[in-house]
Each structure stands twice: as structure tokens, then as C-alpha cells.
Amino acid sequence: MSKPVEIQSAAQFSSLLQDSPNVPVVVQFYSASNEASKQLAPLFERLSSSLSKRKIATFAKVNTETEGLKALVSKYDVKKVPVFLVFRRGSVEYKVASDDPAKLQSVIEKLASDIENMGGSSSGTGGSGSSSSSGGASWRGADLPRGYTDISDSIDVKGLELLNAETDFPVRALFSKDKPSALDKGKSTSDEKDWVESDTDEQLLLFTPFNSAVKLHTLQITSLPPTDSDDDDVPMRPKTIKLFTNRPHNLGFDEAEDIDPTQTIEIGENDWNSNGTANIGLRFVRFQNITSLVIFVVDVDGDSEKVRLDRVRLIGESGEKREMGKLEKIGDEQGE
């Protein structure tokens, strides 16, 4: 399939989403009489020809003037055209809209690049978050809650700050979309340092600012401490974590100990899955309109004075991006 699928009915549209569970489905809502739609049509055709052939994405078109498609137009709140929606596993993940064809073209090209880099091959994980990714697709340590997405892309990585980490462990590695090297090599003593360990004691303070206000639903933490080390000070998994929201900067350790957190989390041994990931549900009503998150690792599950983090995933709904016009990453309708 190289050309976009021209949707003729709501049933056909639903079937297309069901038949493409492992790759993004990019849908253009357009009008044959709209000038901006006409200008973007060749670009959309080129993207479809390039990415569909390599099974990176599926492309479709919905003519908003078609009487039988009015229900789709209403369901996805399409008020102006052209509008582009990107679906993953049947849910809207991105919505791209603009009255400026040049700006919209820039957004679509970047979106296409992101899709290609994510490498949504047909051999992806489907609904399973425990499988490793191939061909560049994002690795997931645990399943996503229904209706929500990984919003780690909303993090302002330049503003990340991690206190009490050993200096040769990169903080950005925590948010890598790659499978942890400890799992890739079948052991947690990998020489590749794509994880973080604490320095003088078992505590860490991670300041995570966002590019836009977000809603946080779930925190996923992956920790893969070595199991075959004779070192008495081998790092352990975190046990107690405190979360603080909307701080203008990172906290100090004394301050984090003294003030009330937004939520305190106790992680038990049974909370870790086979990927070494704990899937932590947050008190959703307390994590609305969040501009920054401080993650305070208080102590570990053991006697060690070191803690290890391999991956951090933030799951929820992201707000409107501040760059490149109106590029929204959203989850399904809130129903939980």
C-alpha cells in the first residue's frame, strides 16, 4: 500500500484502525474545495508512498464533505481543514492543525521523521509492553494503561537535573527509548552505562521540567541491579519514592525530607515485573496541569547505600506543544 486509503465509511475507518495495531495510522481530514488541503495533498501523497511501502505507517484520507463521514468529523472534533490525526492502537496520539500551509508542512515533515525514527514495523509489540523493540521502535518495560501514552517526549531535556548521581552515569539515558543494555545482553552487569547509580548514599533527586503542562497518570521505573556481584555495596532497587509537582527548580535533600510530597510511593518486591519495571499508578486528580516533576528516591530495598535506575517512563496526557504551531499529543478520552 503506497497511496493513502480513501475512507468511504465509518465502518471502513474502524476496520483500518483494527487492522493496523502495530504501526501509526496517519489520517488527513480534508475538503476538496479547501485551498490549504490542495496544497498539502502532494506532500501527504509523498509521505504515504515513502513510509507505507516500508510498513512504517499507514495513511488514509477522510473527505469532510462526504455525507457518510460526518460522524467521524464530529467524533474527532474536526472544525477546520486540513487536520492530521495520528492513531496508535486505535487511539489518537497526535493532532496537527494549522491555517498556515507552510507551517503545517513543517510540522508534518517533522512528524514523518519522528515516525520513521520510531520505526513502527509490523513486528512490533502490539499490546504487550514487555517485549523488546526492533528496528528502532520504543522499548516498553510494562503495558500502558488504556487511553494514555508515554509523554516522556514532553520533557525539557536541557532542564533535567539529577543530584547525588555518579558523574559518569548520564541522566538523559533514563528516558532513552531503547531497551536497557542490561536486558539486551542478558545480564545486568553490562559495561554500557545507560543507567544511573547514586553516589554517596542511596538517595537521588531528579528534577524533570516539561515543555508544556501535562497530566500524569502512571510512573514506570525500571531498575536492573546486578545479581551476580560480590561487591558489598552493590546498588539496589528503590523502595520509597516521593513525588513533588510544579517546583521551579530541584529541591535539596533536606528540603525534600521536610516538605509534604504530592504523593509517596512504597514499591514492594512483587511490584517488579520480569523486565525489572514497576508500574506505579498515581493519584490522577493530583497530577493535573503539571509543569515539572521532582522524583525523590528516599531509600532502597536492602542494606546497600546505592540505588540504581535504568529507565523512567512518564505516562499520561501531554498538553499543547509550544513549538511549531499546534501539535498536540493526546490520549484517549478520559474514562478511568
Give a quick rundown of the structure:
The chain has 336 residues and is an alpha+beta fold.
SSE order and pairing:
Blueprint: E1 5-6, H1 10-19, E2 25-30, H2 35-53, E3 58-63, H3 70-75, E4 83-88, E5 91-97, H4 101-118, E6 149-150, E7 161-163, H5 181-184, E8 196-197, E9 204-222, E10 238-245, H6 253-258, E11 263-266, E12 277-281, E13 290-300, E14 308-309, E15 311-318, E16 326-329
Parallel strand pairs: 1-3, 2-3
Antiparallel strand pairs: 2-4, 4-5, 5-16, 6-15, 7-9, 8-14, 9-12, 9-13, 9-15, 10-11, 10-13
Commentary on this structure:
The structure is a single chain. With 336 residues, the protein is α+β, with helices and mostly antiparallel strands. It folds into two domains: 5-122, Glutaredoxin (3-Layer(aba) Sandwich); 149-318, Jelly Rolls. Helix content is 19%, strand content 28%. It contains six helices and 16 strands. Strands 6, 7, 9, 10, 11, 12, 13 and 15 form an eight-stranded antiparallel beta sheet that branches. The chain has a six-stranded mixed beta sheet with strand order 1-3-2-4-5-16, with helices on one face. β2 (25-30), α2 and β3 (58-63) form a beta-alpha-beta unit. α2 (35-53) runs parallel beside α4. Residues 118-139 are annotated as: Disordered. InterPro entries: Galactose-bd-like_sf, PITH_dom, PITH_dom_sf, Thioredoxin-like_sf, Thioredoxin_domain. It comes from Anthostomella pinea. Residues 1-113 form the Thioredoxin domain.
